[in-house]
Amino acid sequence: MEAECGTANTLPEITEEIGETPESVPGKETPKGKWLTPFNLISIPIILLGAVLIVIRFTRGLGSVTNLSQDFPWGLWIGFDVNTGVAFAGGAYVLTFMVYILRINKYKSLVRVTVLNGFLAYVFYAGALLLDLGRPWNAANPIIGNSFGVHSILFLVAWHFLLYMLAELVEFSPAIAEWLGWRRIRKLLAGMTLGAVVFGITLSTLHQAGLGALFLMAKGKIHPLWYTEYIPILYFVSSIFAGLSMVIFEGTISHRVFRNLLDPDDHTSYPRILHGLARICAGAMFFYLFLQAMLFIHEQRWRYIDSPMGLWYLTELIGFVLIPCLLFMHGLKGHSRTSIRVAAFLTMIGIVLNRLNVTIIAFKWYSPERYVPSWMEIEITLAIIFAEIWVFRWIVRRMPVLSKPPEWAVEQDRREHELQHT
């Protein structure tokens, strides 16, 4: 009762703000909505200005728009856009593993929207990665074989990014085929889903850890409170509760903004799904805290606590890992969806802090000159985020992502299920 209090009153304002109206119903080719909404009025100028700055960046070089230097070659676009964005996309491999491998079907309604979010995150953040490269045209070298660089962790990351994007595209492709009415192709694509899921889960677990492994080369440059040989494991474990917290956050918005697209059964089962996700988040965060405690003792980190960086480390760990973990457990015990949503939001802030601490704040903390992102770097990052939301909204309003697939697709799945059990 407490969780949905006020939803009926706030729904019109929320849907109007993001441009979604009751006229946007499944089946229409061109859903209609108001253009002059606060979201559109804010996002369109930011996207247009970001496009102009991106052109300047590629025509005049990194120095024209960034504060990067030889001492600080990686900045906001790597620390936030790539490291944080990939962590938030982790919900895709977690949910597909639970639904397709463990056969926990109660999460099936979230699979398509989560895979779509993960796919778009990788596409846009791969673009952000190109922005950060001094010679972006060389990005194809690990793929085409001009200079593989097999001894570099970036070689693995590049291939993981490419193959995982393709795997997620295959996972989402049945929705595209349903939208276009391609029945035979949809049947073929649906048959490839399980293989793509297994392949994608393998790749995702590797590159979540691989991004952390990049920083193993920076020993002595990252503050000892954040540097450890176990960064890859910490990155992987944190991607579990980061991705699922994003699912909770995104699901909360989707169940209000796109309420008219959802099947009534999804509204009924949503509280149960929310509690299941919160339980997994709490468990993963407890394990993460256990690992941090072991590292704290084994690496004798207590000697660094009595310092500004030590206090900042405790703020990250206690304020944005321990407290959200306790809030998740409180939400489970008291059936409070508000506590779960607050915990998910705090967790997302904590992931942002952790990734920025590793890549920027705790990187060369001893240097008298610090890297601070320029306003143009921040503006381009906002443009990328808003552009992703625009594409996400366009797809959700047209394809069967939140709504149920067409009857012929459901019939195809039913027949395939019967064939497998005969």
Description:
With 422 residues, this protein is mainly alpha-helical. It has a single domain, classed as Formate dehydrogenase/DMSO reductase domain (Formate dehydrogenase/DMSO reductase fold, Up-down Bundle), CATH 1.20.1630.10. 70% of the residues lie in helices and 0% in strands. The chain is built from 14 helices and no strands. Helix 5 packs across helix 7 and helix 11 runs antiparallel to helix 12. The chain is globular and about 65 Å long. 38% of the residues are buried.
Topology of helices and strands:
Elements: H1 7-18, H2 38-60, H3 76-88, H4 91-101, H5 108-132, H6 141-144, H7 153-180, H8 183-213, H9 231-257, H10 264-298, H11 308-334, H12 337-361, H13 375-396, H14 407-420
Helix pairs in contact: 2-13, 3-5, 3-12, 4-5, 4-8, 4-9, 5-7, 5-13, 7-8, 8-9, 8-14, 9-10, 9-12, 10-11, 11-12
CATH architectural name: Up-down Bundle
Q: Could you tell me the number of beta strands? A: 0
H-E string:
HHHHHHHHHHHHHH
The fourth-level CATH homologous superfamily is Formate dehydrogenase/DMSO reductase domain
Computed over alpha carbons, the radius of gyration is: 22 Å
Question: How confident overall, as mean pLDDT?
Answer: 88
Structural class label: mainly alpha
Q: What proportion strand?
A: under 5%
Q: What about the largest sheet?
A: none
